Structure formats: C-alpha cells, structure tokens
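Q: what does this look like with S-adenosylmethionine bound?
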Amino acid sequence: MDEIFHESNHIVTFVWSGRSGKGGTTKQVELNHEYIECYSKDTTKVKMKPVVNIQGEGNYKDKKSTYKREHLRQWGQGDRREDRPSMYFPIILPNGEEIYPKRSDGSEGRWRFGEETVRKLQTDNDLDFVKDENGNVTVYRKIREGRESIMATDSLLTDKGTASSGTLELKKLFGEKVFDNVKPTTLIKHLIDLVIYDDRNAVILDSFSGSGTTGHAVMDLNKEDGGNRRFILVQMTEATEKEPDKNICKDITRERIKRAIEKYGYDSGFQYLRVGQALDAETLLEGKLPDYKTFARYVYYLCTGENLKDENDTVIPAKAGIQKKKKLDSRFHGNDTAKNNAINESTFFIGTFGNQAIYLIYKQDYEALTRMALNLEVAERIIAEQPNKKRIVYAPACFLDQEYLEEKQIEFVSIPYNLFQRKG
Ligand SMILES: C[S@@+](CC[C@H](N)C(=O)[O-])C[C@H]1O[C@@H](n2cnc3c(N)ncnc32)[C@H](O)[C@@H]1O
C-alpha cells in the first residue's frame, strides 16, 4: 500500500473489533480485532465524516440552560504563557478585578482561547467565575446543554458487526455456509459512509470481493439514503487443476448480489462480465499472443469504446424502471451492434458499430502474421460484404495505396505485429 499510494497518504490504521471472543480457550489472549489500513490518493482531498456530539444535561444551571463546566485555563501540555503568548491576557471580573491565567505552581499560564473569543464568551454569559474560601477565583467555560460539537471520528471500530454476523448475513441468502471470511455489510457501510460521505454518486471498487459484501453494502446504503453509488467487484474463479469447474465469482459473488436484490428489494441492477486475457505490451512482448476472439474483442473496444457481447455475460437490470434497463442494455451492446456482431476469424469480420464495419486481419501464429496484410483480394471481398458502411481494417500490413483506400472508404489501422515477435 505504501508503494502504491505512498506512505505520506496513509491516513490511519483502523482497529475493528470484529471477532467475538470465544472465551474458555487454552490461549492466553484471544485476538478479537483486525486492522483496516486506510490510504488516500491525496490526503488533502480527504474529508472524513465528523461525529456530531450533542451535549447532554449539565450539573449547573443559569437562566439560559443547564451546563457543564470546563476550565478556561489550558491544562496539561502547552499550558505555559510562552507556549501561546497571545493567550495570556487579563479577564475583568464582575467586581472589576483582573485575573490572569496562572499555573498551579504560581507561574504564568495561558487561556485555552484567544482574547476575542473569550470576550465573546463573557458577553454571552458563557463564563463562570468561582471563588474558593481563600478568595481565589477560577474561570470556567459553560458547556451548555444541547450544544453541538464536532469531533473527529474514532479509529476504534466497535459495534460495526463481526465476522460471525457477516457469515450469518450470507447464510440467510444461501441457506448454508458457502464462504469463509465474510465481512459484515455494517462494517463496509460504515467505511463507505465515513470516507466518501459527501458523494452519493461515488463508484466503489473492491478488487478482492469474495462473497460480494461490498456490492451488498453499497445497495443497502443507497436504499437507506437514496444515494446512487455504484460498485465494481473483481473476483477470480479460484479454479484449480483439481477443481477445474470452481467458479467463486459466478456461483458466489454474482449469486449473492442477485439474491440480495431479490430478498431485500433493492432497486439495483448489475452487469456480470468476464475479463479476457490481459493484453498489454508487456504480455505481448513476452510472446503471449492472444487468440483471435480475445484480440478481436480488444480491438473492438479500442475502436468503439464499447464491449462486444459475450454469451457468458449477464445483465441483471434494476427492477424498478424499464428506463434503467434500456440504458444498461444500450451501453452494453452498443446501438445496433448486438444483432450484427459475430466474430468470424475466417472472414476477419468482428462487428459493426453505427456506420462502421470493423475487421481484424490476424492469426495467433507468428509465422502467419508476418505474411498477413490488407491486400486487394481482401479489400474487394470486404467492400462487397459491407457495401454501405465505412470499413475499418486492423492488420499487420497494407498493400494498397492511400488513394484507393480513401476512394473505397477503407481505413487501415496497423497492428504492430513486430510487438508480437518473440524476443530472444
Ligand atoms: C478474503 S476474500 C474477501 C472477502 C470479502 N471481503 C467478503 O466479505 O466476502 C478475498 C478474495 O480475493 C480473491 N482474490 C485473491 N487474489 C485475487 C486476484 N488476483 N484477483 C481477483 N481476486 C482475487 C480470493 O479469491 C478471495 O475470494
């Protein structure tokens, strides 16, 4: 986390008392807390939700209200005159005498506030002057009943649910225990509300989403306060050679969100998408050529900013609002793309987008790639296939001149096949 965010952006380590002690174990100490590291991209932009404290009834009373007393003189650390020289000044008592802040050893102290604030407190009748039997006067500030004070939030998280309450929440949806280490939605809701309380349109990302608690918590928070927060959950299948069909992401993460929407009537929908092979220069340079379909989807996305639909993808539309469903669908399929898209390696066709037809001349084979190009034969076939569209062709090379391409409304985009050549 220090490497990613830099240690200067570490805000706090929360301590979550999230495990209920079992007691009676043979251990000397029962661990009943966990840590939550809080980092920001930029600490100057963080605005944590403050705690508003409302003062209760006090032991003292005047005409205005009951109140508690607080010493006006600074106590403890930094209580000397030289610590804050501007907070050393006389207060004029009702009998006209002057009083200066004095430490218990008789040396010069200081008040807790500057002169202007203290004068105002005095005018507002918010100071108490108390004389002892020796005639020494102590000055107090009146902390009035009903007064609001803003306090910093606590680093200690108690009453925010426990690991067992998280497990129980999931059990309520699945009828049995299906996942270990489930966080309670109450904890995640608290954290979301704490760090981005002033943005109800926030996007919350959980890249290790497990049973999907974060998604559930976001939907719950939105229901509570009418927010429009969205979530992105990332999860791996956890499939292994022994369990090739294991798919936590589909069977638990996705299923949990679906069931929560149904059970709690959340007005939320979501898309379930599968991440393809990672395609970046590094992977390619390592010599990992993507298969045709994966690369085609990537090219389509680069070209249009939209995703091609995959038979494994799911869209769960929000219940209330056909409008929302439409929005999701059009974002998902592109305008008229869904019905026209059928990736075809033998014809190089990937799909259409508006008035464009997109082609990819490519093969998952280094040798073949060096010989592949947009040539006259391919161009003529493409023109015949898509007579009314602008044709965009991704290929390792082009054997046609610019004039011809312009006349035939063909745009050639070079795929840097030299990138694909195995190094060393
Ligand atoms: C402890 S669980 C998270 C539990 C979650 N907070 C909950 O309440 O259910 C962490 C999850 O991260 C997943 N994970 C670990 N490494 C991953 C990776 N590189 N990409 C995606 N998921 C990953 C694991 O499969 C595991 O299910």
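The first strand starts at residue 10 and ends at 16. Residues 179, 181-183, 208, 210-211, 213, 234-236, 238, 248 surround S-adenosylmethionine (CB under 6 Å).
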